[in-house]
């Protein structure tokens, strides 16, 4: 999808989930202050999101002017969403007294004859939802959609049962984007993986992101992951290797599964280095069951006999049954020397990770750059991650010589000194 759509993530009530949405480049962050009794409950959360330049939209049922002004004065949000039938007089008053505030109205199929002209004149955005309750997960029929004038349609966000499949179906109706709530919630828990999968459709590909590998960190230092909200890394990463694929690479003594338990409330990925398709299936199923909400994706290290049907990274090639809001995304990781073989098998993928040679292996680096350039056309329109032994200078070299927006998995450089994170982020973010 070439035209990236607006994404409003609604009912933000977790600092970790807010941080993940920020790093996934969500555009608006809906925070619920539904009733008067809720005023103040989310104040610190809103302040923290704003501190990270997130655009907070207060979503409310409150419909009296005095209380609304109190909410606006307290939170000083980027916008406010009147989650009830359009009240032109109230909206106009708020607009006059708060000219810099973005105003979100709600349209529902429950409305028999909406006044599109007034909505277009007074509102900055319209959320087209199934009903005025919100968060039900019920799919809207959007019966008014064909009658919405183009100027209003271009600032309309579709809500109501939104998932990756519906996003694809609705991509060309001319709306600005989507407002999503129930997709990201499993009971009282938040689903990082569902947000990851939706962003794969809405804002593909990710570029200039990075993940911190915790494979080699001592368990006593796992406390550093508590910095997640203020640190710029997208997620965390772990390697699972039993030496069956690479005899000199053994993580069995690194406490990987215990680290997974530490990460049960944070977005993370697992990278399997195993030479058995049966073992891969077992491990994917096991980790998916244990970490069904926080495990966002899996990397499988490529080897000649790997069963390519294990990969579910196809985003746009008709694999709807394999890629939806609940599936665990499985991505090929390829050792740079195996890229020729990988592409000989014509493995269709939209996401790929490449294990690069270490910085001190100058000749191997030249070999990698040569093989990458030979296959450069095959990386077009893909999300590409570089993995292994990365540091700031190595990142800079790749940026200069290969000139594309890679993503990076960085381990020892960070866990040896967490204060390096801002500098790493700054280098990765450079054009």
UniProtKB/TrEMBL annotation:
Q: Where is the N-(5'phosphoribosyl) anthranilate isomerase (PRAI) domain?
A: 56-182
Q: Which InterPro entries match?
A: Aldolase_TIM, PRAI_dom, RibuloseP-bd_barrel, TrpF_fam
Pathway assigned in UniProt: Amino-acid biosynthesis; L-tryptophan biosynthesis; L-tryptophan from chorismate: step 3/5
Q: Does the keyword Magnesium apply?
A: no
Arranged from A to Z, the UniProt key words for this protein are:
Amino-acid biosynthesis, Aromatic amino acid biosynthesis, Isomerase, Tryptophan biosynthesis
In short, the EC number is 5.3.1.24
Q: Which domain of life is it from?
A: Bacteria
* Catalysed reactions listed for this entry: N-(5-phospho-beta-D-ribosyl)anthranilate = 1-(2-carboxyphenylamino)-1-deoxy-D-ribulose 5-phosphate
Q: Name one Pfam family in it.
A: PRAI
Query: What is the protein's given name?
Result: N-(5'-phosphoribosyl)anthranilate isomerase
Which species does the entry assign this protein to?
Sediminibacterium roseum
Species lineage? Bacteria, Pseudomonadati, Bacteroidota, Chitinophagia, Chitinophagales
């Amino acid at each position: 999808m070439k035209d990236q759509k607006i994404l409003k993530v609604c009912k933000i009530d977790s600092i970790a989930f807010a941080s993940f949405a920020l790093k996934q480049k969500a555009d608006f962050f809906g925070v619920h202050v539904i009733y008067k009794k809720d005023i103040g409950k989310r104040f610190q959360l809103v302040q923290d999101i704003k501190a990270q330049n997130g655009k907070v939209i207060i979503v409310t049922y409150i419909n009296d002017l005095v209380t609304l002004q109190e909410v606006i004065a307290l939170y000083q949000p980027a916008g406010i969403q009147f989650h009830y039938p359009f009240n032109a007089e109230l909206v106009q008053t708020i607009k006059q007294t708060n000219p810099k505030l973005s105003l979100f109205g709600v349209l529902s199929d429950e409305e028999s004859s909406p006044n599109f002209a007034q909505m277009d004149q007074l509102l900055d955005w319209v959320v087209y939802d199934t009903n005025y309750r919100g968060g039900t997960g019920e799919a809207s029929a959007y019966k008014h959609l064909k009658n919405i004038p183009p100027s209003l349609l271009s600032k309309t966000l579709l809500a109501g049962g939104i998932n990756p499949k519906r996003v694809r179906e609705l991509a060309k109706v001319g709306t600005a984007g989507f407002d999503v709530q129930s997709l990201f919630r499993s009971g009282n828990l938040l689903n990082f993986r569902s947000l990851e999968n939706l962003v794969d459709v809405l804002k593909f590909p990710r570029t200039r992101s990075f993940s911190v590998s915790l494979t080699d960190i001592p368990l006593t230092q796992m406390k550093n992951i508590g910095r997640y909200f203020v640190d710029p890394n997208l997620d965390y990463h772990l390697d699972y290797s039993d030496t069956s694929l690479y005899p000199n690479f053994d993580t069995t003594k690194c406490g990987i599964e215990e680290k997974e338990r530490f990460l049960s409330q944070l977005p993370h990925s697992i990278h399997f280095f195993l030479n058995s398709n049966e073992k891969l299936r077992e491990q994917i199923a096991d980790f998916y069951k244990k970490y069904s909400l926080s495990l966002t994706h899996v990397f499988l290290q490529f080897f000649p006999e790997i069963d390519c049907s294990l990969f579910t990274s196809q985003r746009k090639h008709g694999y709807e049954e394999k890629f939806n809001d609940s599936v665990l995304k499985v991505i090929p990781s390829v050792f740079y020397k195996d890229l020729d073989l990988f592409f000989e098998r014509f493995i269709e993928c939209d996401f790929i990770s490449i294990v690069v040679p270490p910085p001190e292996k100058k000749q191997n680096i030249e070999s990698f750059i040569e093989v990458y350039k030979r296959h450069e056309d095959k990386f077009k329109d893909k999300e590409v991650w570089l993995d292994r032994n990365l540091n700031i200078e190595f990142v800079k070299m790749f940026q200069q010589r290969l000139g594309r927006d890679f993503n990076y998995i960085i381990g020892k450089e960070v866990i040896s000194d967490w204060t390096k994170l801002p500098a790493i982020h700054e280098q990765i973010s450079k054009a």
